[in-house]
Amino acid sequence: MLAQDHLAYLPVGRSSLTLVAGADPVRLLLVGGEPLGEQNLMWWNFVGRSHEEIVSYRTQWQTEIGAADDDACFDRDELRFGAFPDGEPALIPAPPLPTVRLRFRS
């Protein structure tokens, strides 16, 4: 049994998984599968293939939530991060990027 608003990790090797929800609405994110076979950078809530991708994702996030650092402009009809439902906790601005290039972990 997993408590509300908690995360779970299941190690590799399972051949099946049974999920049962009660009467209350449930939000579930299930991530799994074969590794991507490429190096990825991870910084804050972003995953990208290069430093430049992470910079772009951060800029677009800040713009979409109304916290842009500068005059960044993206087409508002094509939101990368989608619409945010009413009644959810306040959106969190991304922290400033480090002053050095992001590097792949070894």
Q: Roughly how many Å apart are the termini?
A: 36 Å
Count of strand segments: 2
Please state roughly what percent of the residues sit in beta strands, choosing from under 5%, 5-15%, 15-25%, 25-35%, 35-45% or over 45%.
5-15%
Order of helices and strands: EEH
Strand order, main sheet: write it out: 1-2
Structural class: little secondary structure
Q: Write down the Rg.
A: 18 Å
Number of helices: 1
- Overall mean pLDDT: 85
Q: How is the main sheet built?
A: 2 strands, antiparallel
Low-confidence stretches: none
The best one-word shape is: extended
Overall helicity: 10-25%
What is the structure about, briefly put?
This protein is mostly loops and 106 residues long. The chain is built from 1 helix and 2 strands. It has one helix at residues 51-64, and strands at residues 41-43, 46-48.
Describe how the helices and strands are arranged.
Layout: E1 41-43, E2 46-48, H1 51-64
Antiparallel strand pairs: 1-2
Description:
The chain is mostly loops. The chain contains one helix and two strands. The chain has one helix at residues 51-64; strands at residues 41-43, 46-48.
Keywords:
106 residues, little secondary structure, two-stranded antiparallel ribbon, 2 strands, 6% strand, extended
